[in-house]
Design brief:
26% of the residues lie in helices and 34% in strands. It has 189 residues and is of the alpha+beta class. The radius of gyration is 31 Å and the shape is elongated.
Length: 189
């Protein structure tokens, strides 16, 4: 419950808030111009609710950017024979701390056991040479495998991608598996 005490000169007021248990919290505020003077000058007070509504409207009209341009979703317009799809690239390093590198037979078994069953419609595997900096600052040069999958976005697909990354990190004691996402138009003609 609150009650207000005004001073005779109208310059300050105190608002007392009863907090229970006999305690009272006091808030003070400066009163710059009397209400009558605001009205004579034609100045109206605007509630903070209206200010928020205006900010949201301006954000919706993009007069005030709501997000950085890099965060704005891109709508693809594909030709009549193309389909808008998402692409994920997963980068698997083979170097391991205090272990031999992941061998080609180990990699092939991982692909057959973990990736193939999760993406039976297809994927691409590329082999290359990579270089990266560890969390301790050391530069590591290693053989890398890149798996590329085109798919229609769905929560179940995201779960499958993350399961592959987790399985590789766990099975081969890896610090990370890099993921790069993009989208494009795909045609199988």
């Amino acid at each position: 419950m609150a009650f207000q005490k005004r001073y005779s000169n109208g310059q300050k007021y105190r608002r007392h808030y009863h907090c229970g248990g006999g305690r009272t919290a006091v808030k003070e505020a400066e009163r710059g111009i009397r209400q009558g003077e605001l009205q004579r000058r034609g100045i109206r007070r605007v509630s903070s609710g209206w200010v928020l509504v205006c900010v949201f409207i301006l954000a919706a009209l993009r007069l005030v950017p709501a997000q950085a341009d890099s965060e704005m979703p891109t709508v693809l317009t594909c030709s009549s024979n193309g389909t808008a799809m998402s692409k994920v690239e997963l980068y698997f390093g083979t170097a391991r701390n205090r272990h031999r590198p992941v061998s080609d037979p180990d990699w092939a078994h991982f692909v057959e056991a973990q990736i193939g069953p999760r993406f039976p419609d297809g994927f691409t595997v590329l082999k290359g040479q990579g270089r990266w900096r560890t969390s301790r600052g050391a530069i590591v040069k290693e053989t890398s495998h890149v798996v590329i999958v085109w798919y229609r976005p769905a929560p179940s697909v995201e779960a499958r991608i993350e399961a592959i990354r987790a399985a590789y990190r766990r099975q081969f004691s890896q610090e990370s598996v890099m993921r790069a996402d993009s989208s494009g138009c795909v045609s199988f003609q």
